[in-house]
Records
---
Amino acid sequence: MRSLSPADQQLGLRGLLLNIIATTLGQISDLHRNFGAILVAPLFFVALLHPFKRESLASFRWLILLMWVFAGIGMSIYGLKLGSMDPNQIHILFAPLMAAYGLAMVSILWARLNIPQSMHALRYAHLILIVAISAGPMLLTTPQNIIRGMQQDGIGGFPHWPPYFPKAYNRTLADNTTTKDIIISDTPWAVAWYADRMSVWLPENLEQIEQIETLASNQQTPVSGILISPYSFNSKNMIGNASPQGTYGELYPLVYGAWARFGNAPNFIDLHPLFKPLSQRYQHKQPLFSYGYIMYYSNRPVVESVE
């Protein structure tokens, strides 16, 4: 994904079968969460055993099941590294229809309890109970989130930190760049969303950074800087990411430069001989948040935005 030459990338087939099996089992064990924690969605599979009187409804459930099975196979092949929040996780697309069948099944079973007509409130109590349980996690955390949001009023709200801090993007970064500038970043989606600036995903090595600079210059949209956030250097698998074959292996002096700043030491790109040309091109190193948790390497002086 981060390579300028995808055709040169090796297709990782080692352990593919085991990964497919593991992902399949993971999907099954996290089925409730994958369905958005909707209580009745997994009950769709129980509804498969019920003989619905309307033929169209009875047939449509098998079509849903067939589509879901093939979707599950596809997710097993492509992988779900981030679990229920992975971009490849599409169980949630089936949740509304499956929840409808599950709710119908619960309603049928509830109706067979023969609740007296005088107890009208209990006849629909199952609907209230299902909604309350499904919405419970959100309802329990909403008061706390409201309080936290009110406490952060006037300073940019309560961001999803780490790695995102909107104020650093839509103020300082946006004020020091133009709409013609391109920013290389480990979170290009955040730059594009918060700062409204064109951004390119951080490539794999220095050579590809130079290629991006050349292409951008030819298009008269020059690269103005490189932005690094905790998205890359705050990984739990730091040693694996910084290895030669890791995610940021060849760019570790750039990605992990924040750790040098935390220790009051010179930036890694100023010390590494291969990165000195890059350091000279982007000599203005400006922390956009705190001690450099979000670091911007700019080719021009950066002026911090005033409240």
Note: The chain has a mean pLDDT of 85.
---
Amino acid sequence: MIMRIRGLAPGLFLLVGLSGLASPALAQVPVIDSASILQLVNQLNEARQQYAELVSQYQQLKQTYAALSQDVNPNQWAQQLEQPLMQNSMPNTTLLPSALAGISPPSELGGNLSSLAQQYLGQNRVYQPQGQDFQARQMREQANATAAMEAMATQNLQSLQAREADLPQIQQQLNSATTIQQVSAIQARLAAEQNYVTAQNAQAANLQVLAMEQSQAQQEAQTEQDRQGEDQALAASCQVLAQDGESTAGCGQ
């Protein structure tokens, strides 16, 4: 019996050895978890969608920042309106007293005003007295003053007409504006041009008042001149009466 067991021992040992060699191979067979893989795929899709949304938001943020930080020059449109003559068509106020009184000749107005005044002076003139008496001087001064006022009014009107013709260029920019900064710049420019128009209208009204006052002053000067002539004639008559021994009671002495 013992001999039989000993005879079977090698076979048993061989079987045990084979079973020991086979077990590691069986332990290395992978196990596939479909649920885990599906969950991972879903997480990747969500992450990709979130990334796309972040990129879109970033691009929108860049566009918004560019629109807000854009430096827009409102004077880039209708640049001819930026000329000093278009912004203020009237001469310096220091020239007005002598110009409106006719004391200074039109040539002292300078620039376009001088040319316009000389043109009006030639058109209005019928005769120019050369004497130095009061009437001769008054006629020359009145002619100078009239030409100066006509020149100022004409230049103001030219400026208004030019602005009216060029303003549509600025207004058309509103149709092509794509950013807040562009719209704000265009609106600011239109507001500035409106202020210039308001100022020019006020200047025209003031010029009209000055012209009326100057006309009144000339009438008063003529009245004073007439009274001076009467007083001088009366004084001469009273002197003759006094020399002749006549009564001078009506002479106001």
Note: The first helix runs from residue 2 to 27.
---
Amino acid sequence: MPRCGSAAVQRHSQGETSRHVGSRADDQTSSISSPVLQQLLALQRPANQDEVSQILSAELCSWRGNPRLATVVLNGLARHRLPCMARQLLTFMLGSHVETNTFHYNMAISACGKAGQWQLALSLLGSMLDTSAAPDTISYSAAISACEKGRQWQLALCLLSSMPARRVSRNEISFSASISACGKGGQWQQALNLLSSMSDIRIIPNVICYNAAISACEKGGQWQLALCLLSSMPDMKVAADEISYNAAVSACEKSGQWQMALSLLSSMPGVSARPDEISHNAAITACEKAGQWCQAMHLVSSMSASRILPNEVTYNSAISACKRVARWQLALSLLSSMPVMRLVRNEVTYSVVISACEKGGQWQLALSFLSSMPHIRIARDEISCNAAISACEKGGQWEHAL
């Protein structure tokens, strides 16, 4: 595995920011029930301001005496991904002279992040400057996370760079969200620059930062850099986890490095990173693309031995591996075993099975599978139809092809 000396970056998990935003509210208010939250959740969407205000008016006196009670409702709205209603709640609080603090706004911005409403997140962050609720690190991190989810990497970087001027400290959470935003925007170079810049301001990258950076390299087709980051983590005293390895395996898969994908997969137990269906699926797909059907089938078998449940992606990739080498009998065997594994066969499944029959010269089977698809409520697509037509052409069955 190649090694490098540069610092590595992360892949921000959406839940990281929300955990930091919501954990304090859970600690402070977990023992307090909130019937008003249930009333708000029962409103037909989208609710208007008058409906929300009418429900909240009954809480006015208690909220004025204890603004912390509002955090229960805001936390619930964030969990249910209702940012517009969270904004309506803040509007009610401001209009009713209920104290609104930084924590209230952080909850609302977190709701925006979970719902992908980056515009509203930025609006709320900007409105904090007009109130006594000063934005803090969590405010900016939640807004950056909203931009990350909305694939607005330029805005995420703009927010990150503006924090020092606002005298707001940056941390590993704000950097991890920014790195992830760059990764989703195809800006792997920017992601790596952010990771390496963290040491300049004495912020130690954590595993989430590294995961985001590896994921950025994976999306950018930079498998060698992905492995470089993975191998540098021990030197930085950061323990790689399943997400780290899954992203690296996926990077190898996308670049056709099936041997390296298998090597990474086999090394995971030795570093206390438990392989799961995601890592196996990436390795199986790598083998499928390289025509290594035996390796793909071995991986499928090893999942059961390791008590890892395969899913539809597992079987579709394995069937596709069989298709590439015209192992149509094995493809049919995998197809028939899917119901036993309680897996749903879909358009992709039947398309690769029909293609396997086509490559194996089994035009009758190809037509049979194609004709059966509507009866089991699976839509026939262009790929499945073209594969069946090709099977008929190869078998000299022009009338069936037409």
Note: DSSP finds 24 helices and no strands in the chain.
---
Amino acid sequence: MYSVISGFAIFCALGHLAQMASVSILDLPFQSYDLVFGTWPVVLGTLPGGIHWVRLLFFNLFMLGIDSAFAFTEALITVLQDTVIFKDTPRHVLLVGCIVPNFSLSLLYCTDSGLYFMDVIDFYINFVMLLVGFLEAFGAAWACGMPELYKNIGVKPTISYMMANFFPLLIACGFWFDNHDLWIGFIVWVGGWVLGCLVTHVFLMERMVQQPEEWTVGSIWFECAYGNISRLRDQIQPVIGYIPFIWVVLMKNFIPQVLVLLFVNLCASPGGAGTYGGYAIRPYQLLGLLSFIFAIFLFLVGLLVPEIYEPLALPQTKVVLSGVTSLMDAEIENGESKGNQSLVDAKIEDGESKGNHSVVDAEIEDGESKGK
């Protein structure tokens, strides 16, 4: 709550500084760390006893940093203790194993150019956070339960609805952040979404024709739009409590799209990747880019070779995955047995037809011989 209030209060401080300097807010040269260290000390310094307010500000920032360090460390240790490889490791050993490397790496920020490194890393880590947030939202709202959607409504409507939600937005971003044509971008976005939904509707109606007793227009559209994430919501509600339905809508149709928009905006910003803050390419920009590339590398490794992260899997996840694998194997074997049985039936029918033909031919020949 403190961070949320402070975030909104910074904009109030910017407005106050702009009024004091009689300039527009857009003309204030504040970004990154300057938003805190360039605004709050000036604004608080105008209050009675301003120097004491400034001291209290820096004490609060220090406590906020300590609090964040506790939160990050506890989150990492909790995840590690839930994995197979570290589940029996004492907590204090994991604590030392996390703190010592982090402390050693942070010594870089204590050098004369440490603030520059911190500023660059802080900027490029935003790409990683947006990417991770998008992958988490996309995984929960779109990827989770997709095989069941394929089975229920088919591949075509599932893919077309996904494309309707993301492709027009990416094209619109090209107009918004490249050509700065806001209205054209909105027209492309809305028009592309409507066109994609119409194509999806055609595919869904084809599915309804194939299964007329199973679906209505409303039920098949709900299955296409929110079926998979609604089932995910039903699965996690007994664990964490009631989840309002608005969560389903936001996770499916709002949060991933907003994260894509923010990611493209960050890439297209004038001081974006490779030129941030006017810092030299080597070593500042290069170090920041490598931090982002390393995160992409970890993601691609997990995508292409997921077995490499198997030691870090949760025990219950391994049980679920083994159960799913067994179920898939059973379905495959069942399908093969059905296929073999169909083949046997076809051979029997073919043999019976051939036998019938032989009987008929024999009767004809017998009749002809009797006639003669």
Note: The chain has a mean pLDDT of 82.
